[in-house]
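Late entry, evening session. Most of the bench is empty. Finally got around to the prediction I had been postponing all week. Sequence below, unchanged from the version circulated by S.P.
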Amino acid sequence: MDRATGPSRFDHLKTEAGLLHILGISKPLIARMAQRAATNGTSIEVELLASGAIEEEAYFAGLARMYGLPFLAEIDPSLLSDHAYGDTQLVEPRMLRLHHKDRPPVVAVAPQILHMEGLARRFGRHANGAGSLVVTTPSAIRRATWKVGEARRVSHAVRGLFESVQSLSARLVVTGDQGFVAGAILCFISLLLVFAPLLAIVAAHMLLSFFHTAALFLRIMAVSHGKRHPKAEVSLESASDALPVYTVMVALYREAAVVPQLIAALDALDWPRSLLDVKLVCEADDRETLEAIRQARPGPHIEVVEVPDMAPRTKPKALTYALAGARGEFLTIYDAEDRPHPQQLREAFHAFRLGPSELACLQAPLVIGNAGESWISAIFALEYSALFRRLLPALGFYRLPLPLGGTSNHFRTALLRESGGWDPFNVTEDADLGMRLCRMGYRSSTLTLPTYEDAPTEFRVWLAQRTRWYKGWLQTWLVLMRQPLRTARDMGPLSFLVFQLLVGGMLVAALSHPGLIVFVTLSVLSLMQIPAPQPNVFTTMMLAMDVFNILGSYAVFFALGATPMTDREKKGMGWKWAMIPIYWMAVSLAAWKAVIELRLKPFHWNKTPHRPCHSGSLPPGLVQPNQSAEALTSAFDKV
């Protein structure tokens, strides 16, 4: 991409404009594209192709005819040799060497118009190099490169992290050392239950209760932080500043129904099309979704990446596969049903530009747009509000590890690659990556502008999704606890403690919650007997602590989530918050189900089905493909 400045830049644009006019492009169109090129630091040619005003194939075929060179619309992958360095053609598709069996190699190029005259002199019909060069399109080069290297690339996506840093991969569910320690602990507990059952129960109860209390106080501190640090003002990069290329990746599987809504949401992003690299990452055999994308006719800035079939079939594997072709200096992930704020990329870039070099990731808040549809979606909305608008901002403020959400993570692409990308065997790859970044010495923080998505409204769908999450959190905890002393040294003592309270505490709370309820219930029923037995001091203390943990957890759960909600969100939730105790019992069911799944099918991905948001869902008008970014921004600001 031409980034020249000053008089030299003006001369380039002037020369380019003249050549494009000779090619047959109208002067008004050239003038509009030249203005964009001057603003974005690109070329008129790049802006012209990104705008969709002319088809890529028609443009390069016209160039070939104009300069007397042959044109090749599609490249046969069998004519290529696969090399790891060939992946550079996915990022900057310029040239491929085609090896024919019956004649000398031919070079296929996707040239810039400013270079065409020199190419014509060397490779034209009457030049010495005639027949050894053909003109093609950047898209043809990318398609052929993706195809010829797919086996190597998908193998690296599956095995790369495990082979390079085995200790960070969830491919081994439990290591030999962990199995030995777990066996020793189980033997000790069994012996204790046989010879001192009361002591074993009391010790376990005390340990769980103190762990509950510590995790509860962490969330109370987040409530306090939210009151002392109200919502920050949104800081955006100026529209006049030069912007880098930004990659947006969306993993889709069986998502044909939401493709039109997704394309509309991506088209609304306030970022120059010429600097936007959107990749829709699909399984190669998901023909229904691929056909839906084809029918939606996405713009030239949107590329479809087909992932070859290779186990495990997970979202992180697909994203790691597509990472090889990411062109952007920065990269973000969205889910198929997401409706991100149009200016979220600008806020992220501004934060990266002003932040320290070790700032690797920014998490945008996820806001549930269908809280009013069911009690499950209402409590889900409360939960997301607590996590993304209170807890994570507090953790980011104090430079503590962030368990990332599965969408709307913004990364420095180089640091994401350096960290190993996503673990294809971890079914909650977001939390795992957040902890790994912290362990490697990188920082994560949060944004203000939200992404809207819909929560499950049916218990069956919610349970499958939550089971997958808890299974992934178990995987993450097991991975980081393979070498606990080294993990504590890498993360730092405070971050390691927070990790234990966030991930370990969440698991312990979910798994033990029914037990606490049973203990409190039995204790209360015992005290209600006539005549009531005389309780001892220890039992009274534990009962008080358990009641505090249970009621305090409910209260903090509500306070964390409700305080940052808008009036409209609170109205949508209504009195469904009263179902919090039932929701917590359902969470416990999902956690126990996850423990069983971790043993029986550790890498199975429970797919959450999505559907287009209803008309009137937050924000209004988002699913209209032709809605302007300004109108959509206004709609978000009214929420």
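Two things to note before I forget:
Residues 1-54 form one domain.
Residues 71 and 135 are 5 Å apart (CA to CA).
Will write this up properly tomorrow.
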